[in-house]
Structure of HTH_Tnp_Tc3_2 domain-containing protein:
Amino acid sequence: MKTAGCSTRRVAGQVDRSECAVRSCWEQWTREGTHLRKTGSGATRKTTRREDRRIVRQALVDPTVTRSTIRADVGVAIVPQTISRHLAEANLKSKCSFRALPLTPEHRQLRLQWCQARSM
């Protein structure tokens, strides 16, 4: 649209983006000839894919395992937050502990009988 002569404001309205975003994209296109984003300059990963799978597998096998136990078992110097992030990426979230133990069917039956006996 810009090469056809449309204004930045009109292009922004058509693609539902801000004028600043359209302007930045156009400047990058004229400067570099591409619209692709540059790779990030973030920190490098401390674990390999294999170690990531091992972290997730340990959490699946034993849901009560702690992050420090997983870290010691994997053998890589990583912080517990990294383990939590890997588990979140695998859609594994921490579960709240029970406030009370769940009742067995036998306990439920006994409680129901006790309540029915005292309902009148």
In short: The chain has a mean pLDDT of 85. The chain is about 55% helix and 0% strand. The helical segments are 8-15, 19-32, 49-61, 67-74, 80-89, 105-117.
